[in-house]
Amino acid sequence: xxxxxxxxxxxxxxxxxxxxxxxxxxxxxxxxxxxxxxxxxxxxxxxxxxxxxxxxxxxxxxxxxxxxxxxxxxxxxxxxxxxxxxxxxxxxxxxxxxxxxxxxxxxxxxxxxxxxxxxxxxxxxxxxxxxxxxxxxxxxxxxxxxxxxxxxxxxxxxxxxxxxxxxxxxxxxxxxxxxxxxxxxxxxxxxxxxxxxxxxxxxxxxxxxxxxxxxxxxxxxxxxxxxxxxxxxxxxxxxxxxxxxxxxxxxxxxxxxxxxxxxxxxxxxxxxxxxxxxxxxxxxxxxxxxxxxxxxxxxxxxxxxxxxxxxxxxxxxxxxxxxxxxxxxxxxxxxxxxxxxxxxx
Amino acid sequence: xxxxxxxxxxxxxxxxxxxxxxxxxxxxxxxxxxxxxxxxxxxxxxxxxxxxxxxxxxxxxxxxxxxxxxxxxxxxxxxxxxxxxxxxxxxxxxxxxxxxxxxxxxxxxxxxxxxxxxxxxxxxxxxxxxxxxxxxxxxxxxxxxxxxxxxxxxxxxxxxxxxxxxxxxxxxxxxxxxxxxxxxxxxxxxxxxxxxxxxxxxxxxxxxxxxxxxxxxxxxxxxxxxxxxxxxxxxxxxxxxxxxxxxxxxxxxxxxxxxxxxxxxxxxxxxxxxxxxxxxxxxxxxxxxxxxxxxxxxxxxxxxxxxxxxxxxxxxxxxxxxxxxxxxxxxxxxxxxxxxxxxxx
DNA sequence: TCCCGGTGTCGTCGACCCATCATAGGAATG
DNA sequence: CATTCCTATGATGGGTCGACGACACCGGGA
Lengths: 345, 345
Prior knowledge:
The structure is a homodimer. By secondary structure, chain A is an alpha/beta fold.
């Protein structure tokens, strides 16, 4: 390449990277020769020399057997999409990597040169995260990490505020006894949300009505929904913490002959758009994964490039309650929901 | 590192990689020192020297503004998940890269050292693909590429057979006039499916009833569905080529007071699970994206490692018709729906 | 018994991968 | 001769690979 253009290797490098002080003539000449030859500088060599690969790892904690769940849940999917997009805008690409597992996926981690890593819902003592931080590779977490887990920065929703707001909304719609469908896992999201619920109950003087189940068991949710509505102290409103809870609760309500929203108000936390078209449409709490994904990437790249000195390392983002029919008992002819609902009673 | 263990750099390399001929004592000694120091060989240096990065590019052709759609459609999402998983199993990781766009995303492509690339639904003259192939980097395509687009290998469904089978199924269920909701784009999937439909019509002597619309316009689908059912020669069965067609057609049928499946049989091509719980459940044609994703990766890695000499470069995979209520008019209490393959593929 | 080539095992050397960066060098100019 | 301005030189990053050197042990011939 250098020979073809009749200049030195350095000149080629400088010309292509816009560095050094070269006359425009040389620069464009080198560029045209490179173009003609289809020459591309070796990414590997550049990475070796500069120490920057332009690659960011992305990993999602998984529960089941499959090593990857980043497409299975709408939250992860949208978060990953936004993150990929934001990274691209700043010249980085995302590498999908497996969360730690017993199969020791370490090798694959050390086989790729990363400038930084995004971790979604890290487990409390993720060895990969520890290892990366020890190596000086910044890690930004989506979801508040355990205190024992060192990360460069993290982003999370204000789950407490979200739950409080949503419970207030239900109460305003006339709910007297609000139930909670939650997980029996100890992850931060579940813990914070449940605590916020209990505190809210205490404040307004309501006895908590809680059913919990192993959140990663797809069938257990339906059973727990059923249990909740079968209780003697049956709630007249329910908040489901997980994505499938909406349909599960709707099905359970149908089984018990409860009309939504007349007999039962419903809200669930979900990013899925199907709840806009269920019968009736269900009010959802959106965690705004897109915004989170974008923020996580900005924080991470700032850390990588050392350009975000002043930015906070802990960022709490607001959520968004999308109010639909299922949580509005009052006249509510002001329904701003789907204009085309076939008005089936 | 080499100094700490009291051996040469080469010995460290050999010990850690299990190469060379070293006594077990030396090997384990080096390993323990490396462990203690937390030493990891530089991925960049290894890549530079060996020419292998262990990285595979993944890109999805996009239509809209957003540079990434790999999570938006169930097909892409599942395909990507399976591919990631399969790659991991063989020691590779996937890098998400943008499809070519006017914003010239070339730079990001040449900034990462790839061993190979998976392209989902490549456009007819994708310059990135051409460039990669010219550089000797294997490219495997999901979806039959245009003849002008050179790829190492491709995998696709047998769309013609799928359409024939599904039309036969509808006819067996009593359909007299089957309509088609299709796209007016020229991509291979649409073209093959539409042609197969027309040929089938000719064979059985039915006049084609076709409505087409720009498939990437989310609203146009509903309108086209409406148009189809408003025609004077209204079909008594419809096949929708795209994922949202099922709900669109269902909604349209409701507006016209058509009962499904009594007045209208419905099938659509989709990977979405929501069609199992619609009212009524809708028969879907699954393209088995998981199986495709896995196959694509196997072919690609075989090409990279030069180990798949005998394997065909063009692989056509069967589809799966998941029969549900919407396409069974007769007594049909004998629901013979697909025996629920545990998605092992 | 002594010396020497033969055989084999371990471990090290040096080249190499290919850009990038700091600095030295050379030409043109004042 | 000093100053600019441009370009070449050489070191550098950190492994990997082919080839060679060091060393121990063996048996055979002198």
